[in-house]
Amino acid sequence: MATAALNRTGSIVRKPLVDLLDNRNVLSVICMAPAAILLLTFLTYPLGLGVWLGFTDTKIGRPGFFIGLENYISLFDDSVFWLVVFNTLLYTTVATVLKFGLGLYLALLLNNHLPFKAILRAIILLPWIVPTVLSAIAFWWIYDAQFSILSYMLQKMGLIDQYIDFLGKPNNARASLIAANVWRGIPFVAICLLAGLQTISPSLYEAAALDGATPWQRFRHVTMPMLMPILSIVLTFSVLFTFTDFQLIYAITRGGPVNSTHLMATLAFQRAIPGGQLGEGAAIATAMIPFLVAATLSSYFGLQRRKWQQGESDG
Amino acid sequence: MAETTVDTQKAADSTGMAYLNTLPRRVVTLYVPLFVFMVVLLFPFYWMAVTTFKPNDELYSYKENSPFLIKNPTLANVEKLLFNTNYPEWLFNTMLVAVVATALSIFASVLAAYAIQRLRFRGAQTIGLMIFLAYLVPPSILFIPLATIIYGLGLYDTSWALILTYPTFLIPFCTWLMMGYFKSIPYELEECALIDGATRLQILWRITLPLAVPGLISAGIFAFTLSWNEFIYALAFISSSEEKTVPVGVLTQLVEGDVYHWGALMAGALFGSLPVAVLYSFFVEYYVSSLTGAVKE
Predict the structure, then answer these.
(1) Do the Cβ atoms of B91 and B78 come closer than 8 Å?
(2) Is residue A156 part of a domain?
């Protein structure tokens, strides 16, 4: 208060309360309070509580006791858990590669001089805007065993003899879910990368072309390095959200057939909420954290380092 | 031939080397792939709409008529959805939760972003980084402990459970976005106001916020969309049918055993998607800027 008054010598005289509110430190605390309270209660605390629950045998409606690593030991011997880890890694890897391949291709297409570009861009983002579960239900219907429109089209084209059992066979179901995830993820990747592409100056391409660079060389040595900073961030987000995906699987297959499409998030849900084993579910959810940290760090720093190796300083 | 010249002329004016591409080449390398992308990305929506308005006998007979067209459009599925299910209540719940959670998050985020970006208290940088990290914590690893917290607070099966938990992913996003907007507003404006004797809260309310309106709109509609689309918390924290949100209600209440009412399901999906799609069509530019802005920062 005293310092606040000192700072204001020569300025108009204020009431003490107004002065207090104008003190930078007091005001900072007040301003941070709503966000801090909400985030600490519903984000930081549950994060810690989740790790703790993983070490207990808590069930729904019954407080648990500390049982050490028992949940993790039983998961270690659980073949379903390892199948689910495999599923999650496969799902994340294949979906991410496809999303980035196709998303980058779409972004490069959109970066051309096009009529109705704004409308095109608006349409492309649509799959990402609508609720995932609702578009997943549409995919569920598209993948229907008896009335699949996809099978119908393929049969009309003469490519297949009988309808494909999209969701009934393990590998078919995995591929179908990955396709649905890629469908939903392409717009996000494409629009973000398009924003990155638009910041690259055309004169760089002209200079490269004058030096005799082929289109592939221009892409490899001009586009890619310039795109790396934004690519690494989009990749980090994409890996993170694909790895922890829940909605799509829950809506279309619920983990079936025979657990072949269960991901770690859906298994954690199944064991914890309908199964009532909160402790075990929390242990599965906690087991995702090391994978997430590893995936985030490698996709972020992996690409950042390459940028640094090429001597790019541009952010 | 003449068309090609005009086209190349136009292209040469705008983008450096596009004039090297001839029209037939553009068709093959550009328009055809783009067309394929559009068809694939839009087909599920088309299929959703066609199924919604098809009568049941057409729905399951691909032999007699083309499945892509509707012979006798019907509103039976929509009627069933509106009058035989709790769909109107789900819509209302979703709207309520999304609006309140968004308002709460925007309020908290604007204050937090202002404090971090402009008041520059000690440790502001660290807090900014921690908020970014909070953005990276996925709901999938939080819902189990959150369920016990919600239960302990006596909020289980109420809209409050969602209103209070949605800000966990909305606040980090909105704060990050608003910090970017505040950064772009010249600090000199605030200094002038300080010299003129305005308090800091007056500055935030009268000067900074009016200039950050585009950012507020971006953050607001984006937060609204994220709340509307949220699924896992709504699935875990709500059990009675009347309290459910649209995504959860459509998935859990419209499927009875092994009987799938595809017409009603698709109607539910279509009308659950429409509000965000309409909102989106009005504010496309804001969506794009918040999407790319959040990634770029």
Answers:
(1) no
(2) yes
Question: Residues A90, A307: contact at Cβ < 8 Å?
Answer: no
Q: Are the C-beta atoms of residues A154 and A146 closer than 8 Å to each other? A: no
Residues in A closer than 8 angstroms to B228, CB to CB, are 131
Mean pLDDT of chain B: 84
Q: Which residue has the tokens 């959860």?
A: B248
Q: Which domains does chain B have, with CATH numbers?
A: 86-296 (1.10.3720.10)
pLDDT for the residue A5: 44
- How many folded domains does chain A comprise? 2
pLDDT in tens, A2-21: 444 444 444 455 567 777 77
What are the tens digits of pLDDT across the range B250-281? 888 887 666 678 888 899 999 999 888 888 88
Q: How far is CA B180 from the centre of its chain?
A: 20
CA atoms within 13 A on the CB side of B280: 22
Question: Phi/psi at A145 (nearest 5 deg)?
Answer: -65, -40
Tokens matching residue B122: 């000690």
A113 domain-assigned: yes
How far apart are the CA of A278 and the nearest CA of chain B, in angstroms?
A: 7
CATH code, domain with A303? 1.10.3720.10
Query: What distance in Å separates the CA atoms of residue B266 and residue B47, rounded to the nearest whole number?
Result: 9
**Helix intervals (H) in chain A:** 2-7, 16-22, 24-39, 45-53, 70-76, 79-110, 117-129, 132-142, 149-156, 170-197, 202-210, 215-218, 224-243, 247-252, 264-272, 278-309
Nearest alpha-carbon partner for A190 in B27, B33, B137, B276: B33
Residue B6 has pLDDT above 80, yes or no: no
In a domain, A132, yes or no: yes
Please state, in angstroms and rounded to a whole number, the distance separating the CA atoms of residues B132 and B127: 9
Query: Could you tell me if A36 and A141 lie in one domain?
Result: no
Structural domain boundaries, residue A262: 70-309
A window 22-41, beta carbon within 8 A of B: 22, 24-25, 27-28, 30-32, 34-36, 38-39, 41
